[in-house]
């Protein structure tokens, strides 16, 4: 279930998804195929839809993210536009496959490029300060548990993505709140979340992944 809540009088907003404990701790040996659930958000929000990707064998780099996990994409662009994005791998020296490169004022501090555009998503930017990386592109050897990923395509950021392993969900017995490394500006002016929260709810045996602490950003100059 996706949710969006705001209270203009108190200037707070939350947007997120709730999964049952059974879904969040899914057994990859029983559900061994990757899957995508597309969910529209209720209410009026800058996020167009949520793409919940189940990755039973993880994804690349396999020595970093090759464990069962969920990729939870909060998309800023409509689903039909996202689905038009092609798969492109462009090693160093081959040039960038964009008509417009990601604007400098939209590049989040501390992140690095993967140089691969995933079809129906975009190019992912990984957090070099997350525990699974020793430095940009160099794995630390620590097991991936949860991290925040940015995405972009053709000049603009296009998704926010908490990435969470089933093992992390299984071990979670409290609420975890992390800051999001935010760029100077966003594709369009408005309020955007600056933190993400992962919580277990004993009363209903479920987990929520929430973007919160919205703050105003100016439109990119790129």
What features would you describe in this structure?
31% of the residues are buried. The strands form three sheets. An eight-stranded antiparallel sheet has the order 3-4-5-12-11-8-7-6. Strands 1-2-15-14-13 form a five-stranded antiparallel sheet. The mean pLDDT is 90. It contains four helices and 15 strands. It is globular and about 45 Å long. The protein has one domain (2-217). With 222 residues, the chain is mainly beta. A hairpin with a 4-residue loop joins strand 14 (190-201) and strand 15. It has helices at 21-24, 62-65, 79-82, 166-171, and strands spanning 2-7, 12-20, 35-40, 49-55, 69-75, 88-89, 111-118, 122-127, 133-135, 138-139, 146-153, 156-165, 176-179, 190-201, 206-217.
Distance between the termini: 35 Å
Rg, alpha carbons: 17 Å
Q: Give the helix proportion (percent range).
A: under 10%
From the spread of the alpha carbons, the general shape counts as globular
Q: For the report, how would you describe the main beta sheet?
A: 8 strands, antiparallel
* Averaged pLDDT: 90
* Count of DSSP-assigned helices: 4
Counting helices, strands and paired strands, the structural category is mainly beta
As laid out across the biggest beta sheet, the strand order is: 3-4-5-12-11-8-7-6
Number of domains: 1
pLDDT < 50 runs, ≥5 residues: none
**What sequence of helices (H) and strands (E) makes up the elements?**
EEHEEHEHEEEEEEEHEEE
What is the count of β-strands? 15
How large a portion of the residues is in β-strands, by DSSP E? over 45%
């Amino acid at each position: 279930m996706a949710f969006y809540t705001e209270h203009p009088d108190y200037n707070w907003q939350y947007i997120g998804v709730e999964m049952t404990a059974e879904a969040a701790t899914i057994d990859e040996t029983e559900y061994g195929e990757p899957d995508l659930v597309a969910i529209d958000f209720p209410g009026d929000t800058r996020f167009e839809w949520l793409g919940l990707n189940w990755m039973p064998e993880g994804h690349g780099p396999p020595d970093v993210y090759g464990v069962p996990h969920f990729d939870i994409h909060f998309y800023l662009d409509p689903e039909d536009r996202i689905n038009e994005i092609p798969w492109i791998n462009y090693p160093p020296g081959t040039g960038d496959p964009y008509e417009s490169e990601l604007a400098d004022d939209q590049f989040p501090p501390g992140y690095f490029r993967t140089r691969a555009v995933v079809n129906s998503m975009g190019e992912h930017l990984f957090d070099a300060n997350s525990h699974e990386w020793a430095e940009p592109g160099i794995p630390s050897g620590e097991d991936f548990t949860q991290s925040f990923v940015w995405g972009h395509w053709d000049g603009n950021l296009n998704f926010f993505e908490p990435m969470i392993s089933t093992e992390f969900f299984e071990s979670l017995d409290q609420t975890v709140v992390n800051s999001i490394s935010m760029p100077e500006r966003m594709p369009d002016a408005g309020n955007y979340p600056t933190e993400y929260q992962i919580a277990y709810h004993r009363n209903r045996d479920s987990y929520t992944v929430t973007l919160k602490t919205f703050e105003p950003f100016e439109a990119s100059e790129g």
